[in-house]
Amino acid sequence: MNVKSVIRLLSFILLFIAIIMVVPLVLAVVYNEDVAFSSFLKTIILMTVTSLVGVFATSWGNREIKIGPKESYLFVTLAWVLFSLFGALPLFFSSVLPSYAACYFEIMSGFTTTGATALNNIEAVDKSLLFWRNMTNWLGGMGVVVLFVAILPAFGVKGTALVGAESVGPTKDKLTPHIRHTAMALWSIYFFLSVLETVLLMVFGLNLYNAVTVTFGTMGAAGFTPTNLSIASFNSPAIEWICIIFMFLSGANFALYFKAIRGQVKKALKDGELRIYTAIVLVSSLFIALNLFFSAGMKAIDAIRHSLFQVVSFTTTTGFSSTQYQNWPIFSQMILFVLSFIGGCAGSAGGGPKVIRVATIFKLGKSSIRKRLHPTSVSKIRIGDDTLSQDTVSGISGFIGMYLVTFAIASIVISLTGKDLITVLSSCILTLGNIGIGLGGIGMDFSFSIYPDWALWVFSFLMLVGRLELFTVYALFTKDFWRS
Predict the structure, then answer these.
(1) Is residue 42 within 8 Å of residue 89, measured between CB atoms?
(2) Up-side HSE of residue 231: CA atoms within 13 Å toward CB?
C-alpha cells in the first residue's frame, strides 16, 4: 500500500476543491453576505493550509505518485469523506444547522447527489451558501475525481484506476484511448447540457440564480433547490417539463451521447439498457397517470405531467417534487417506492442499483427457471445486443445481494430512532440509493431534522457507500485490502 501517494494526491484534490469554493465566496461578496463570506474564507484558508501541509510532508524522497487498485479505492473513499468534512464547514461556521453532524449530512447529501436535507427553511439560508450546497450536486453528478483526472493531468498519475473506483455502473466505458480524454469528453457533454438547461429555464421565467441552481440539481440527478417546495415553488408547467427532459437525460448513460456525437446515433438508440430505462419510465408514468385520473380525480393533462415528473424524479434518483405526491393513492406511492430500488442507467449521473443490474437479475431468474426445466440447456444473459460475461453477472448478483443486506441492516439500526416503519424504510432506501425524497415522515414537507445526530451519521455513511457502489468502500474493511 503506497500511503504516501494517497496522501499526496488527497492534498492536491483538496486544494482543487478549495479553488472551486472561491465561486460561492465571490457570490457572498455580491450578495453582501458577511457571515457567509467569513465562513467561506475561513474554510478556504483551512483547506489550503491542510493541502500544503500534506504536499510538503510527502515531498521527501521519490515524489512519483503510484496508484494501483488498492490505492485508488482508498483515495476515492477518503477524497469523498474529505470533500464533505471540509465542505460542511461553511454551513457550520454560519450556524445554518444546529450541529456539525447535520452540516456534514447536508454536504455529503450534496456531493453524493442524494439531495436529502436537514434544513427546515431553505429559503432563509444565504444565497451563497445555497449556491455552494447546490454546486456540490453538480460536481458530484459526473464525479469530482473524474473532473480532477480530466483537467489536472500534471501530477503524472494515470487516472484509469481512479475513474474506475468512482464511476457508477457495472461497466466502465472507455470512449477514447486515454482515460483523461474520456473524462474530458464526459464532462464536456455534461457541461453543455447544463448550459442548455440553464438557458431554457431562463427563457421560461427563472432568474439566473434560480436557473443555475436548479440546473445543478437536475443534471447532477441530485435534487437540491433554493426553495422550500422544490420545483413546485415555481408553479410553472413549462419549468416542470424542462426538468422532466433533463432529469431523463441525466439518468441515461453519458457514453451514449458521445456515441451519438460521433455519428453512431442508431447504435446509441438501440442500447438495451436505454430501452429498458425508457420503458420503465413510460409504463410507470402511464399506470400512475391513470390512477390519478380515475381515483384522485386529477385532470388528464395534470395527471400526465405530475406522474411523469415524479416517476422520472424517483427513477433517476433526482428527488425533485412538483406536487404533494404523498397525498396520492397508495397504488401510485407504491410504484414510486419500487422505482427507488432501480435507479438510472450505468454511466449516468443517477444513483440506485442501476437499470442494467435490475434487468440482469430479472433475466438471471428466468434463466434459472429454464435451467430447472431443461438441465442440459446453455443460456446466456443478454441486455439488448450485448451478452454479459459470467464475471459481470456474478458481480451484479453480488452487488444486489450486498445492497439488500446493507438496506436491511441500516433499517434495523435506524428503527432504534422510534420512527414509523414507512419513514424508516423510505429514509434508508433514499439515502442508500441517493434519491433524496421519500415517503412518510421524510416526504416533500419534511426533512431529516426529525432524526438525532447519530442517525445522520449513519445516513451519511449510507449515502457514501451508495454513491461509490458499495465495493469501493467495503473493500477497505477487509483483511485482504491491508495485506501487502
Answers:
(1) yes
(2) 32
- The partner residues of 383 in beta bridges, in order of sequence, read 386
Task: For residues 156 and 150, give the distance between their C-alpha atoms in angstroms, rounded to a whole number.
Answer: 13
User: In this predicted structure, what is the pLDDT of residue 47?
Assistant: 95
Per-residue confidence (pLDDT) for residue 73, from 0 to 100: 86
How many C-beta atoms lie closer than 10 Å to residue 445's C-beta? 11
CA distances to 150, 220, 264, 281 from 247, rounded to whole Å, are: 24, 9, 23, 11
Residues of the chain with pLDDT under 50: 154-156, 172
Q: Output the pLDDT for position 153.
A: 55
Spatial separation of the C-alpha atoms in residues 297 and 70, rounded to whole Å: 56
- Say whether pTM exceeds 0.70: yes
- Of the candidates 360, 280, 294, which has an alpha carbon nearest to the alpha carbon of residue 331? 294
Distance CA 178, CA 305 (A): 42
The pairing of strands 386-387 and 382-383 is antiparallel
CA–CA separation, 115 vs 319, rounded Å?
Answer: 6
Asked if residues 46 and 23 have their Cβ atoms less than 8 Å apart, the reply is no
**Nearby residues of 144 by Cβ (< 8 Å), 6 or more positions away:** 13, 17, 79, 80, 83, 111, 166
Q: What pLDDT score does 311 carry?
A: 95
